[in-house]
Amino acid sequence: MDRAGLTNANLSRADLTEADFSAALLIRANLTDTIFTKTILKWASLSHVTPADLNLSHAILDKTVLPNGSALER
């Protein structure tokens, strides 16, 4: 999904295991209970998503812009 944009997408309870969202823009997306195991979110931007406290502990997040606007580097 390189450089794709998803606005107002309902991804609630979606299984995005190992999906590639590199450089994607997710704006106002519902990500409640979404599974992000090994999901690639490098250079992605998540803006105004629900919930704001996403559990991304198993995602690949290098240089991802999180809902609060901070960039995560790991």
Quick structural summary:
The two termini are 21 Å apart. The protein is mostly beta strands and 74 residues long. The strands form two sheets. The protein has a three-stranded parallel beta sheet with strand order 1-2-3, with no helix packed on it. A two-stranded antiparallel sheet has the order 4-5.
Based on CA atoms alone, the radius of gyration comes out at 11 Å
- For the secondary structure, the number of strands is 5
Structural class: mainly beta
| Total of DSSP H or I helical runs spanning 4+ residues | 0
Compute the number of structural domains: 1
Spatial order of the strands forming the largest sheet? 1-2-3
Strand content: 15-25%
Following the backbone from N to C, one meets helices and strands in this order, namely EEEEE
Looking at the structure, what is the overall shape? globular
**Level of helix content?**
under 10%
Oligomer: single chain
Question: How far is the N terminus from the C terminus?
Answer: 21 Å
Question: Which residues form runs of ≥5 with pLDDT under 50?
Answer: none
Task: Give the biggest beta sheet.
Answer: 3 strands, parallel
**Average pLDDT level:** 85
Please tell me about this protein's structure.
The structure is a single chain. The chain has 74 residues and is mainly β. It has one domain. It contains no helices and 5 strands. The chain has a 3-stranded parallel β-sheet, with no helix packed on it. A hairpin with a 5-residue loop joins strand 4 and strand 5. It is globular and about 25 Å long. The two termini are 21 Å apart.
